């Protein structure tokens, strides 16, 4: 994932966390087609939450950080992780 995304090696931790996130939410033959997440939390995985590592995204700018009524509500960014804490890398 890190090689394909063309990000520097300093993002290897985020790539590994994303790989672990995806692995825990992927069906396993030893669990009869269920996912480890499904077994542990007794609920199904929402597949709409998956997105490619380093995909284009928009990060919401909090209301108190905006400079006025007509200021942009989002900032262009790339997503570098889909684990519990949202991870964004901003770019312009």
Automatic annotation (TrEMBL):
Keywords: DNA integration, DNA recombination, DNA-directed DNA polymerase, Endonuclease, Hydrolase, Magnesium, Metal-binding, Nuclease, Nucleotidyltransferase, RNA-directed DNA polymerase, Transferase. This is Reverse transcriptase Ty1/copia-type domain-containing protein. InterPro entries: Retrotran_Ty1/copia-like. The keyword Iron-sulfur does not apply. GO terms for biological process: DNA integration; DNA recombination. GO terms for molecular function: DNA-directed DNA polymerase activity; endonuclease activity; hydrolase activity; metal ion binding; RNA-directed DNA polymerase activity. It comes from the Eukaryota.
């Amino acid at each position: 994932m890190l090689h394909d995304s063309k990000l520097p090696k300093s993002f290897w931790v985020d790539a590994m966390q994303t790989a672990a996130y995806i692995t825990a939410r992927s069906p396993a033959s030893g669990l009869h087609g269920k996912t480890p997440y499904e077994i542990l939390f007794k609920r199904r995985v929402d597949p709409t939450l998956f997105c490619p590592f380093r995909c284009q995204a928009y990060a919401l700018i909090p209301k108190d950080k905006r400079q006025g009524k007509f200021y942009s509500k989002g900032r262009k960014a790339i997503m570098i992780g889909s684990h519990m804490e949202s991870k964004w890398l901003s770019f312009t």
